[in-house]
């Protein structure tokens, strides 16, 4: 599903988010009930505000960028054969 964020309804269902993400609805439901993706109950269903979904997507993108940067740092450190670690980051000797 190719969706522009401004064309999304104000309130999304778990199924709609799952279709946008290409995930199984259970995965979205778990992210909602864990609090990772802000949502609210409406009867027996979960609903996600469009703004909350967009903000969550932006956090995912930032986390993905951070993971890519961190992976690059670890690879560089591996090449420098540094055995030291601090706070989850490898430090190259220099």
UniProtKB/TrEMBL annotation:
InterPro entries according to UniProt: DNA-bd_dom_put_sf, HTH_17, SinI_DNA-bd
What positions does the domain Helix-turn-helix occupy?
12-59
Question: Which superkingdom heads the taxonomic lineage of this protein's source?
Answer: Bacteria
Q: Which organism is it from?
A: Brevibacillus composti
Task: Give one GO term, molecular function aspect.
Answer: DNA binding
Instruction: Write the protein's name.
Output: Helix-turn-helix domain-containing protein
Cross-referenced Pfam families, in alphabetical order? Answer: HTH_17 (PF12728)
